[in-house]
Amino acid sequence: MEVHDLLNPEGVIARLKVTSKKQALQELAARGAKLTGISERIIFDTLLERERLGSTGVGQGIAIPHGKLADLRRLHGIFARTEQPIAFDSIDEVPVDLMFVLLAPETAGADHLKALARVSRLLRDKAMCEKLRATDDADAIYALLTETTASHAA
């Protein structure tokens, strides 16, 4: 499972203008609705429900909101870089500025876990995060996220 299998250029938001976790999830759900054809409200509710179980803010300014949706046929990713870091109830209490949303079919099982692991590995790379934070061009961000999967695949 590689990032280019999850993410397309339309799934990258280079300058997300939000001031709260709830607002971020709403904007990400709106983008998810455009990509998947599933209701924005259903996606938002799914992401919010997952956050109630525990924050998906994994630390170091990174969050990986995710959820399973009944009407999805394949995994979808959405990447966003916020204009300003936002409080996200992260495990280290550091505000979040990099978010990678994973939307998975209810039946995804192992594929969902593999995708979460792949995204987590990618975003644990400090040099990668520095590059992502240094650009506000969506095409450049998409290239960074997808080209590194090829170089890390070996």
Structural overview:
- This protein is an alpha/beta fold and 154 residues long.
- It has a single domain (3-152), classed as Mannitol-specific EII, Chain A (3-Layer(aba) Sandwich), CATH 3.40.930.10.
- The chain has helices at 3-6, 21-36, 40-53, 110-124, 126-134, 138-152; strands at 12-16, 57-59, 62-63, 66-69, 76-86, 96-105.
- Strands 1, 2, 3, 4, 5 and 6 form a six-stranded mixed β-sheet that branches.
- A hairpin with a 2-residue loop joins strand 2 and strand 3.
- Helix 2 packs across helix 3 (40-53).
- The two termini are 13 Å apart.
- The model is unreliable at 149-154 (pLDDT under 50).
Q: Characteristics of this structure?
A:
alpha/beta; 23% strand; Mannitol-specific EII, Chain A; six-stranded mixed β-sheet; disordered C terminus; 154 residues; 6 helices
Short structural description:
By secondary structure, the chain is of the alpha/beta class. The chain contains six helices and six strands. The protein has one domain (about 5-150): Mannitol-specific EII, Chain A (3-Layer(aba) Sandwich).
Give a count of the beta strands, DSSP E runs of length 2 or more: 6
Q: N-to-C terminal Cα separation, in Å?
A: 13 Å
Which class do the helix and strand fractions yield? Answer: alpha/beta
CATH architecture: 3-Layer(aba) Sandwich
Radius of gyration: 14 Å
What helical percentage do the residues reach? Answer: 40-55%
Residue-averaged pLDDT:
92
Order of helices and strands: HEHHEEEEEHHH
Using the alpha-carbon principal axes, give the shape: globular
The CATH topology assignment is Mannitol-specific EII, Chain A
Strand content: 15-25%
